[in-house]
Amino acid sequence: MKKISDSTISRLSTYYRTLSHLIDQGIETVSSEQIAEINNITSAQVRKDLSFFGSFGKRGLGYNTRDLRDQIANILGLSKKWNVALVGVGNIGRALIDYAEFKKQGFHIKALFDNDPKKVGQEIGGLKIHHMDSVCNVVKEEKIEIAIIAVPAKVAQSVVDSLVKCGVKAFLNFAPITIKAPDDVMVKNENMSIELEALSYFLTQNEKGD
Ligand SMILES: NC(=O)c1ccc[n+]([C@@H]2O[C@H](COP(=O)([O-])OP(=O)(O)OC[C@H]3O[C@@H](n4cnc5c(N)ncnc54)[C@H](O)[C@@H]3O)[C@@H](O)[C@H]2O)c1
């Protein structure tokens, strides 16, 4: 299959949400123009993104919202349940454990890790916090496929390395560093500071233009 860009994958997630909202409103069919308008992009972009994966909808009739949502869910692998581990049960970690939406989307937090002796052994949301010493055993037992990294930056690389050694191949990293990983491992970075800097740049350039 052709290599699909990150931006196409990210737009598919957006279309998935758009279709879910339309279905909630009882709307059965939608055109690429409507999907485009809702998301401030062009209809050509919507058609191009979908064309990578086959032909959907009927010319002139648009797409059936449920069919298209289900097909996008299949493409994104959302029809299955993913077992997730969270490493670092601090401020960010706790907020993520409490976020019920992940579970609804098929991402089930099944294991918690921390190296603080005061936290290890405690239970949060029905899950025991394990020490990193037992990481591979727990990863194997809980069939962990994705790990969320919410530890301080200075230890994030070594934490990822430990999980890679246990066979985990997908990471969502909250620590503000660039993680190095083998080619068959994917690391997505979640960094609010970068987003804030983009806003800062936008406001700074606007001021200069005034
Ligand atoms: N992505 C963002 O937008 C964003 C925003 C704020 C903070 N952060 C980053 O997220 C991370 C977590 O922030 P926080 O405020 O929750 O920190 P925190 O100090 O509250 O929590 C970190 C947790 O990691 C644990 N930990 C430390 N070393 C560990 C190790 N080697 N193995 C396992 N657990 C370990 C600590 O015991 C603690 O429970 C930091 O890297 C921070 O810079 C990201």
What is the element layout, followed by pairings?
Elements: H1 6-24, E1 29-30, H2 32-38, H3 43-51, E2 63-64, H4 65-76, E3 82-87, H5 91-98, H6 101-104, E4 107-113, E5 123-124, E6 127-130, H7 135-141, E7 146-149, H8 153-165, E8 170-173, E9 186-189, H9 192-209
The structure holds nicotinamide-adenine-dinucleotide.
Nicotinamide-adenine-dinucleotide is lined by residues 87-93, 113-116, 119, 132, 150-153, 155, 159, 174-176, 190-192.
Task: Describe, in plain words, how this protein is organized in 3D.
Modulates transcription in response to changes in cellular NADH/NAD(+) redox state. Homodimer. This is Redox-sensing transcriptional repressor Rex. One of its GO terms (cellular component) is cytoplasm. This protein is an alpha/beta fold. It contains 9 helices and 9 strands. It has 2 domains: 71 residues, Arc Repressor Mutant, subunit A (Orthogonal Bundle); 112 residues, 3-Layer(aba) Sandwich (Rossmann fold), CATH 3.40.50.720. A 7-stranded mixed beta sheet has the order 5-6-4-3-7-8-9, with helices on both faces. Strands 1-2 form a two-stranded antiparallel ribbon. Strand 7, helix 8 and strand 8 form a beta-alpha-beta unit. Helix 1 runs antiparallel to helix 4 and helix 2 crosses helix 3. The N and C termini lie far apart (48 Å). Nicotinamide-adenine-dinucleotide binds next to helix 5 and helix 8.
In short:
Helix content is 46%, strand content 17%. It has 210 residues and is of the alpha/beta class. A hairpin with a 2-residue loop joins strand 5 and strand 6.
